[in-house]
Specification:
Layout (H helix, E strand, L loop, with lengths): L10 E5 L1 H16 L6 H19 L4 E5 L2 E6 L8 E6 L9
Parallel strand pairs: 1-2
Antiparallel strand pairs: 3-4
Helix pairs in contact: 1-2
């Protein structure tokens, strides 16, 4: 529907990619009956997220992806105070740009 030329939509909003991953994890846990996700299942979650984000990114529309955020504090050699970095709260090291 969104791929078709001439559709009425100009923009799609993913709210939120963090929640998309959480729902995927919850579904995996429900199917397995376990409270812990295996390393292989984590890989599946990351792969599914990458594929979904890439498919939306490639649409002929404006795409806005919303993520929850998480803080990281990294010690710097030249400072006594750790530097604060804010990054998207998602599993996996990278997502398609």
């Amino acid at each position: 529907m969104l791929k078709k030329p001439g559709n009425e939509f100009k923009t799609v909003v993913l709210d939120s990619v963090t929640d998309f991953q959480k729902r995927d994890i919850d579904e995996i846990k429900a199917k397995s009956g376990k409270d812990i996700v295996s390393q292989q299942e984590w890989g599946l979650v990351v792969s599914r997220t990458e594929v979904a984000v890439r498919k939306f990114r490639d649409l002929p529309l404006n795409v806005l992806a919303i993520f929850l955020s998480t803080d990281m504090f990294i010690e710097e050699d030249d400072s006594d105070t750790p530097k604060r970095y804010v990054r998207p709260s998602v599993y996996g090291k990278k997502l398609p740009s």
